[in-house]
Amino acid sequence: SDPNDQTAQRNLTHVYLETGRFTEAETGARKFVTKNPQASSVRHELGEALAATGRYAEAAVEFERASNGPDLPGSQLLSRLRVAEMLEFSGQREKAKTIYETFVKHYTDADPQTSEELTAIARALVHLERYQDANDMYRSTIEADAENLEAQLGAAELYTQKYNYSDA
Q: How is residue 130 annotated by DSSP?
């Protein structure tokens, strides 16, 4: 009912993405961020729509904008992680690696506590092929917040990647 409700638009865009309605996701998100340029969570979802359709460079721009928004640190880190992943997908491995390494620095300098931040850091560690550190981070995250499905899925994917199917 409120056309300026960022949470509602983010959730609607996410539902469109989850149901494969990428055009609707992109169109709605673009319309919203045109009116509300600081809506970083909607920008993030717009980036997801662009990534889902293979437009990695455009997605990276939206993720970068989202990472500089006023959201919580965990959301900013996730958007920054997605910037690095888009760079990696488009063959810019060294640039991506540089960004992934900033997550390690953030962990040592800022002592992050939220499960969202720790999950993003764990994902960055996987990209850096620091699998044991990533596993430890996922375990800590899940112990701190058993409801964090992203951490549980990330840990399971890591186990699967390393052929440990029973733990996955």
A: -
Tracing tokens 């989850």 back to the chain, one arrives at 18
What sign has the CA pseudo-torsion 112, 116, 120, 126? positive
- For 12, 18, 35, 38, 67, the CA distances from 3, given in Å and listed in that order, are 12, 22, 10, 15, 23
pTM of the entire structure? 0.89
Q: Note whether 103 and 125 are within 8 A (CB).
A: yes
Q: What is the rounded CA–CA span in Å between residue 23 and residue 150?
A: 25
Q: What is the DSSP letter of 71?
A: S
**Residue 14 burial (CB count, 10 A):** 18
- Which residues are CB-neighbours of 93 under 8 A, at least 6 positions away? 87
Give me the residue label for tokens 């455009």: 58
9 with 38: CB under 8 angstroms?
no
What is the greatest pairwise CA distance in the chain? 48
pLDDT digits (tens, 9 = 90+) for 12-30: 999 999 999 999 999 999 9
Angstrom distance (rounded) from CA 9 to CA 14 = 8
Tell which residue, 72, 102, 74, has the closest CA to residue 87: 102
pLDDT tens for each residue of 103-121: 999 999 998 888 999 999 9
